[in-house]
Amino acid sequence: MDIHYDAIIIGAGMAGLTAARKIAEAGKKVAVLSRGLGTTNMSTGAIDLLGYAQNKLVLNPEDEIRNLIRTSPKHPYAILGNGDDKKALEIVKDSIKDFLKITNMAYVGDTAQNIVLSNYFGTYRPSCIIPLTMRHGNLLELTDAKLMAVGVRGYAEFNAKFFAKSLHYVVNSFLRQTTTNEVVPKEITIPSLGKDKDITSIEIAEALDTEEAFSRFLEQLKELITEVDVDAVVVPAILGYKNWVKNHTILEKELGVPVFECLSLPPSVPGQRLQQILENAANDIGVEIHRGLQVLSAHIENNECKTLETVSDIYRQTFKADVYVLASGSFIAEGLYFDGNKFYEPVFNLPVHRDNRNNFSERRLESGNHRIAFAGIQVNQAMKPIAQNGDVLTNLFAAGSILANYDYISEKSGLGVALTTGYLAGVNANNSL
Hints:
Blueprint: E1 3-10, H1 14-24, E2 30-34, E3 52-53, E4 56-57, H2 61-71, H3 76-80, H4 85-102, E5 107-109, E6 115-118, E7 124-127, E8 129-131, E9 146-152, H5 160-173, E10 182-188, H6 201-208, H7 211-227, E11 232-235, H8 244-255, E12 259-261, H9 269-284, E13 288-291, E14 294-301, E15 304-312, E16 315-326, E17 337-338, E18 343-344, E19 396-398, H10 408-411, H11 414-432
Helix pairs in contact: 1-9, 1-11, 4-11, 7-8
């Protein structure tokens, strides 16, 4: 039996849920189809707009996006404004303002300034729109600061001693804008977990959502603060799932110094928080999220998608809509495939654009940006994918990492491109209804 919607989005990550929400805000009936949680769930939880350009650290994303649009006219940021850097930046700012609104002040940031954050290895990563719990972690502002790095006994992913040594070396050797005099490693316990080894960040976050575990956590930090005079405290990304903003506020008030989480490894608690923010915002306005569905194929007539065929275990189902948004991700999310000989997009059979000068089957590893990262679906200025015959599918839009002509890994632009292109695809799809 056909299920009919105004719009169907394939993919439940940043791009897909942003597009779904923008369409649903206009009162449309929207469904999101997804096999799983999506790669946003595994991300750092911070939104990288543009972290590197020409292999150099970007401090002002707006300026570098302007330069990128001029030098790379096929980049997704250039497509946003159809080559007009002023228009593109307006869309970037509008999409970020729209995102910040749904977070209820749980995220902060400015498109004119990147924030350089530390990760679990004590190295650094530039980002733009970040969780509130990381706002005091800008390494460029910690001039002559003495930090306390606090790990959790049994949580092997974050080693406070290694982090302290690495961060001190990295900051002084590579980030020459600042010097950190000392990083003091400390360790606490989470007694309520009932074990002291093989603890995961997920278990700690769940525990710290409870009043008992958080109170003991706070008590131990207070004891450490009295022992060592520090300017700020850095902890792994563990401050809770539901109560992370509240817990962070209490910590800073009670300890009297800035406290910040650092960027984590998958499985990422901040990534899961971000996923929940996106899903809650979509659910609040009536978006239906169907998880556990694999989209097998699309039925297309006269350059128009009519229906989608899906499967869940062995149960097949047909979905029908007036417009569709393809936000199924790149190779990691299996929105695109490369079988060693050819690239393909499995649902709409869209051509995958790539650099034909490179033999991917023979050159799997190479220095610099690997050209396979630039492979993806080409779209026009309306975010409509270009089909095999060179035409566009009239009621299909695309967004996120499935798009061609950019390397989100080396650029550090993944969630930024996903957010901005998902926003525009949603607006354009809604306007076509």
